[in-house]
Amino acid sequence: QVQLVESGGASVQTGGSLRLSCASSRSISSFDSMSWYRVAPGKQRDLVATITSTFSTNYADSVLGRFTISRDNAKDTVYLQMNNLEPEDTAVYLCNAMILTNKGWQRFRNDYWGSGTQVTVSS
Q1: b (16+ CB within 10 A) / e for 31-41
Q2: Do 83 and 59 touch, CB atoms closer than 8 A?
Q3: How open is the CA angle 116-40-97, to the nearest 5 degrees?
Q4: DSSP string, 77-102
Q5: Which end of the chain has less Cβ packing within 10 Å, N or C?
């Protein structure tokens, strides 16, 4: 069983910065990718940023240039540096770890989730 524990959420004002952390109970090198998602009040879960096992990154358009995802394999931790925060960034931020497994000709995806950390940005 994989445990992902997020931390770093807080209440900040517009323009502020936060760094979220996601600590994994399993070596993060074993995952094909790790991501941050967020769920805003009354909205669906959205992908924020992804970092693969080869350190490739991808971002949602809404956070491009403001957020940076990174990983420290030695600490089994993934980070999300969030700068120039806006009220629209208010959400619960969830850490995700994904593994792809091949069985014969089929490919299976396994996802693991943390319980989330609250980020609130006030104007």
Answers
A1: bebbbbbbeee
A2: no
A3: 40
A4: EEEEEE-S--GGG-EEEEEEEEEEEE
A5: N
**Residue 19 contacts residue 82 (beta carbons within 8 Å):** yes
Cβ atoms of 52 and 33 within 8 Å: the answer is yes
Q: Is the dihedral of CA 75, 51, 110, 45 positive or negative?
A: positive
For residues 14 and 86, the answer to whether their CB atoms sit within 8 Å is yes
Q: Residue holding tokens 């995802």?
A: 69
Give dist(CA 75, CA 58) in Å, integer. 22
Chain segment 74-102, per-residue pLDDT in tens: 999 999 999 999 999 999 999 999 999 99
Structure tokens at 25: 């109970």
Cα distance between the two ends of the chain = 40
